[in-house]
Design a protein that fits this description.
CATH architecture of one domain: Distorted Sandwich
Radius of gyration: 26 Å
Distance between the termini: 27 Å
Oligomer: single chain
Strand order of the largest sheet: 7-8-9-10-17-14-13-12
Helix content: 25-40%
Strand content: 15-25%
Largest sheet: 8 strands, antiparallel
Length: about 700
């Protein structure tokens, strides 16, 4: 389609926030703008604890509840603590992990998770939230039941604990291999004291990851007097220390590996040989500050916006998690690809291009082992969670952008073989040209995600000069058109005989049990970023398409159905920001030549659907995706197309943002931006007026200056 230049529109009127000068922010400790508890309330599900960027260890508190809002082990509404676990998820809608949980105790206890209505039912204690300290790389909280202060920090593969016990003769640490995350349960555990300071073992479990293996070695800063096994199947190990007449601190280091105890020991030796807790915490903070400095904000900005931005950037770099041992070839896990292919992985291709190549190569290694690219990979297990072929889209993006170390021929083979898989609706799509809704649940969503992946293959093949493959997959990427009903203006269920499913209600949703996935016809009608020409054709022209897109935001937010998906949240009309399928939808305005409308809606989302409070994320944070949308959109652009390598303009939030790129920087300037003045009138790249409403990936990575003129 023809892409028009940026349109000029009148500025909206929104109350301006208090601003302050932040010209010297680059020289400050950026971690002070990070509040890890943003997103820990409502349905955000973020990890709260100590970690380093992309670390294997995410060491933090785990609570008693195992309900949906505790999939990360922590919720702002609940201060119970059963221990401090070394693995956690962040932002996900399903729970697992919480491996190798440690609880410091005083006196005799019941070796069980416990119940909140019975203080003696388990190990658990309330944490004193009024004295809780949470910052990047460090976590601390007093345990009210025991009078113990717990402090945590971490390296990539090692967690270090410092427990300050009261005076007495019954101080101990309990290693809990029974309790995992939500649906997880142990299949094999072992704890063996190898000296009076060291315990080694493993925890194998089944849950979301059907065959998860974690090996560990735990070392203490002073000898322990006893080690005894307790509880169900001896899955609790009590490590008792000598009496003390005064309060004293005991430290504990726990190193992890997915391969062996010997590898865990090697990880401990490589990363944390000494016992300087404060230096380790300072090193973790520095690692975070170095990564946060990948994007430096200048000019005037409110403290609230800076907290939102740098916390979002922080959340964008917790996952994927390292999965290799120290010194081994890089590998990653917790690949929430249906979420992250849209914004988090594209963001990382800018600020972490080398790591992004490593992540892509991890996916290719998974292809070699399981015969198809990953869907949702978790600690060595394919969970097949969610729909479509998101691994294809992520790898295609790596190919188009020529990420370092990625073998493009190997990648193209992996993509085409995966796209040819007949499982998960593939055979139906091949036979009918679409997936009939009477033969498979969520048929529209499955097919439309497959079509997005096909579009990504077409883009990758075209970038490699393979026109035959590009044409084949471009044609396949149009399969979604079979669902478009011009009489209603929506995609809707189509039966095997090509008749429409009746009755039809675009507001209807049934969680994981209708023709869509975590959505309805309003949202899924726009899930064709690879085929915007097709959208225009289906709606009967650009103006009709824009009018239909307007109606998405103007419609009543009422949802019908007896089992409305809880993932449908953060609504503006029927636009849903709290879930991923619509994250590109606002930027369709820019692609359709209505950039002013995109600016208005982007700014509305930035200002109203994100905040610097525990409830500040509208929906599951989803392993960095919700946060990465905020980061990219704050810069003024977003990659709306799968593997398109074009970042379409929206509305910048800051007067200046300096993005570190290899060999230099890419600076985005928006002089005078404010709540009233945020719509883009024109843009210059390195002084030259742009006649297109986007910049390319290569232009960003080459460095330079993008300057917006705002109205």
């Amino acid at each position: 389609m023809r892409l028009t230049a940026i349109a000029v529109a009148a500025a909206g009127v929104v109350a301006a926030a208090c601003t302050a000068r932040h010209d010297e922010i680059a020289a400050t400790d950026l971690t002070r703008y990070v509040d890890p508890k943003i997103g820990s309330g409502a349905h955000g599900h973020v990890f709260v604890g100590a970690s380093v960027p992309f670390g294997m260890v995410q060491l933090g508190p785990t609570s008693i509840p195992q309900a949906w809002d505790w999939t990360s082990g922590y919720h702002d509404s609940d201060s119970t603590i059963i221990g401090f676990s070394h693995t956690h998820l962040s932002g996900t809608g399903i729970g697992d992990l919480f491996d190798i949980t440690v609880m410091p105790v005083v006196g005799e206890v019941t070796y069980a998770r416990g119940h909140q209505d019975d203080a003696e039912s388990g190990l658990w204690s309330y944490g004193d939230r009024s004295r809780e300290v949470v910052r990047p790389g460090y976590y601390s909280i007093p345990l009210e039941r025991y009078g113990i202060t717990a402090e945590l920090t971490a390296t990539e593969r090692v967690g270090i604990h410092r427990y300050t016990f009261p005076a007495g003769d019954s101080s101990a640490v309990v290693i809990d291999l029974q309790n995992g995350g939500c649906w997880d349960s142990p299949t094999s555990v072992e704890m063996i004291p190898v000296s009076d300071r060291r315990i080694a073992g493993h925890r194998h479990s089944t849950g979301w990851a059907k065959d998860q293996k974690v090996y560990f070695v735990a070392e203490f800063s002073e000898p322990f007097e006893e080690f005894t096994l307790h509880g169900r199947d001896n899955r609790y190990g009590r490590v008792g220390f000598a009496p003390s007449d005064t309060a004293r601190s005991v430290m504990m280091k726990v190193a992890l590996s997915a391969t062996s105890v010997e590898a865990a020991e090697a990880n401990l030796a490589a990363e944390l040989g000494g016992w300087d807790f404060d230096a380790t915490a300072a090193a973790a903070s520095k690692k975070w500050n170095d990564r946060l400095a990948d994007i430096k904000i200048g000019g005037e900005a409110s403290d609230a916006d800076l907290r939102k931005f740098y916390t979002a950037l922080y959340h964008s770099m917790i996952l994927p998690a390292a999965f290799n041992d120290a010194g081994a070839s890089p590998a990653y896990t917790i690949l929430s690809l249906w979420d992250t292919y849209r914004a988090q992985l594209p963001l990382l291709t800018i600020i972490e291009p080398e790591r992004s190549g490593e992540i892509a190569n991890t996916m290719l290694d998974i292809f070699d082992s399981q015969g198809r690219l990953p869907v949702w990979h978790l600690w060595g297990n394919e969970t097949d969670c969610m729909i479509g072929n998101p691994g294809i889209i992520a790898v295609a993006d790596a190919v188009v952008k020529r990420l370092p170390g990625v073998d493009t021929d190997r990648a193209l083979k992996a993509m085409t073989v995966t796209a040819s898989d007949t499982a998960r609706g593939g055979a139906l799509r091949e036979a009918y040209g679409y997936i009939p809704c009477d033969l498979m649940k969520e048929a529209i969503a499955w097919d439309m995600e497959y079509a997005v992946a096909d579009g990504a293959i077409a883009a990758a093949a075209a970038s490699l000069g393979d026109s035959v493959t590009a044409r084949k997959y471009e044609q396949r990427s149009r399969s979604w058109r079979s669902y478009f009903d011009p009489s209603t203006g929506f995609v809707r269920g189509r039966m095997a005989d090509r008749s429409w499913r009746t009755p039809f209600d675009p507001n209807y949703t049934a969680h994981r049990n209708n023709d869509y996935c975590e959505g309805n016809a309003w949202q899924y009608t726009w899930l064709a970023p690879q085929d915007v020409d097709g959208l225009v054709e289906m709606f009967g022209g650009r103006e009709a398409t824009v009018a239909a897109l307007d109606s998405l935001f103007a419609a009543s937010p009422v949802l019908t159905g007896e089992d409305v998906s809880p993932d449908i949240s953060g609504m503006i009309g029927q636009y849903v920001h709290g879930n991923e399928p619509g994250h590109h939808a606002i930027y369709l305005y820019t692609m359709l030549g209505e950039q002013a409308k995109a600016s208005a809606r982007v700014r509305q989302v930035l200002d109203t659907l994100y905040s610097d409070t525990p409830d500040g994320i509208a929906g599951n944070e989803d392993a960095g995706q919700m946060s990465a949308w905020f980061v990219l959109s704050s810069l003024g652009f977003y990659q709306a197309e799968p593997a398109g390598a074009r970042f379409w303009f929206g509305s910048p939030l800051f007067e200046e943002a300096v993005v570190a790129v290899p060999g230099g920087s890419f600076t985005v300037k928006a002089p005078g931006v404010s709540a009233e003045r945020h719509r883009i009138a024109s843009a210059r790249l390195n002084g030259e007026v742009l006649s297109r409403p986007y910049v390319t990936y290569d232009e960003i990575m080459a460095g330079g200056v993008l300057e917006f003129e705002l109205i």
